[in-house]
Input
Amino acid sequence: MNKIVSIVVPIYNVDGYLEKCIESIRNQTYDNIQIVLVDDGSTDSSGVICDHFQALDGRIEVVHQENRGLVAARKAGLEICNGDYVGFVDGDDYIDPEMYSNLITYIEETEADIVHSGYFKNDNKDIVWGTVENSICELNVENTDKILHMLMAPINSVELISASIWSKLYKRDVALRAYRIVPDEQSYGEDILFFCNALMQSEKIVIVNTAFYHYVLRNNSITHKIKRDIWFREYSLYKHLLEIFKENPQYRNYIDIMLARNLSFALRKMSGGKVRCYEYPDLEEFINKKVVIYGAGVVGQDIYTQFRLYKDCNIVAWVDKAYNSYDLKYSEIYPIEILSSLDYDVVIIAVSNGNLAMEIFNGLLQMKIDKNKIAWKAPVYTINSGS
Output
């Protein structure tokens, strides 16, 4: 196989992460690659690091430009891509050595336009996020509807595919056409705009239930900042999505649901968790039972609030492996070891990811907890799809 894969890396002030990122791309087992590093006006040493690696590796091309934002940086990289396929990696993330050898195999063997995979969070390779079971989808009306439902309006996170631009591989002409019409100012949500554009211009997509990409969580990254203009950003994204699907009004409901959910999650952050975004299905199973909630993250907090609304739901404890990381004003979080001294009927695992739930389930079994006393169902979004 001699097809070239071009990999575009937008970079802005990530010098503490950049070397690991670039090395992970250089060390791909599929080595017929073009690495395009776009330094978008960095004020730290990111630009120097780019030039250093360009001198080491002839596959690397560097673009230095004034700071114009994420979308403009990716567009600048796409302009000099010469590969048959295009992938993206963010400058503060990294990838497994076999990522592109696997993705190009999937896309070549199926003759697809896009291959989608999941991702890991940081170094944890036990839990895959953002993908579903393997499938090959001809993008007819029925399958396009199915993909957009999983993308914008899934019932729960188990049925969700991520819009993340960097967990996919695209045919070059699809990537160029689809990204060209993403507005430069729309750095928020540009990945879903691009992906939707690409879907509408493609004939086939492959979804694989595996991951090779490591998304590095940073508290100061763009996606983790709460901005006062959230309403304007969400509405801008909404308008652009409506424009993409103006000839396909049957998808309007999905766009409406996504807007409502995004706003509810934004309100949740701004209100300190007072807005509930998740709920446990079939709560009636636990009426008049002594319940332990396992998990104090967003899902756990919402389920705790949900259960507290019903007088017949008896929460005897709330536990988490990282119990000392939480300082909630309305409830104490206990270490999981307390389970050995409690009288309870059921431990509810309060997480959204099925792989993470299984990891917790197995840990509870090792603690000699009866498997019949452990419950998990994928929490549903409080604003659901109506399906």
The CA atoms of residues 123 and 214 lie 7 Å apart. Residues 252-270 form the longest helix (19 residues). The first strand starts at residue 5 and ends at 11.
